[in-house]
Design goal:
Number of helices: 8
Keywords: Membrane, Transmembrane, Transmembrane helix
Helix content: 55-70%
Strand order of the largest sheet: 1-2-3-4
Number of domains: 1
Length: about 210
């Protein structure tokens, strides 16, 4: 499967700019990256509740005044790689999660995704069987990538409008971070699914054929 011009994903291996990488260690590496993002997002909730008694007191409008370090911790929606992009293109003063339900669904998601990714990492690294140990990770990661796609499509007109105007360094950086997070998670989704199909095909063979 050719994902991009320089990225090809097969069941056993992936090729990144011509470099052949086995899917198993690649999936572990990508899962560790996304687990770090998910845990960091959960810690935002813990910090918000500890300091303010609120599940997610996010204020993304921090570039109009001098903000303290504590304000910066809660100013970015790490789970969707939003480091000021939505504020810049939509003019919002809070994170997207605050407009949905105040951040409660985001809080639950960080716990579920972190748990599923941890189980996937353990399965990938140490437990080739049973295959169902990868199901939570596949479900959560697929849902997550689709969610990022929906968010991107919903905000695409405003993003394109912003990119069609004057692009300064700040906009270039926050847009690049968002695109990187979007692409790396779709790549992780495809790598994980292809490796799962490979393991499923191997373990479905008769015992003699597996030798």
């Amino acid at each position: 499967m050719r994902l991009l011009a320089c990225v090809t994903i097969d069941e056993q291996h992936s090729r990144l700019c011509g470099i052949r990488i086995p899917n198993r260690p690649l999936a572990i590496l990508l899962a560790l990256f996304q687990l770090t993002v998910s845990v960091a997002s959960f810690l935002q909730h813990a910090f918000s509740y500890y300091k303010h008694g609120h599940v997610f007191l996010c204020n993304s409008n921090i570039f109009l005044h001098n903000a303290t370090f504590e304000v910066h911790i809660l100013a970015h929606d790490v789970i969707i790689f939003d480091f000021g992009l939505m504020h810049r293109v939509l003019g919002t003063d809070a994170c997207v999660a605050n407009y949905l339900d105040g951040g409660y669904m985001r809080f639950a998601w960080t716990i579920e995704q972190s748990s599923a990714l941890t189980l996937s990492i353990v399965s990938l690294a140490f437990l080739p069987k049973p295959l169902w140990l990868l199901w939570p990770g596949l479900l959560m990661q697929s849902s997550y990538s689709l969610g990022l796609s929906v968010l991107t499509m919903a905000t695409a007109p405003k993003i394109l409008e912003a990119l069609g105007g004057r692009i300064d360094m700040h906009l270039a950086v926050i847009f690049s971070i968002y695109v990187f997070g979007f692409c790396i998670n779709w790549m992780f989704t495809f790598v994980l699914w292809h490796y799962y199909w490979y393991r499923e095909r191997i373990f479905s063979r008769p015992p003699a054929a597996q030798l």
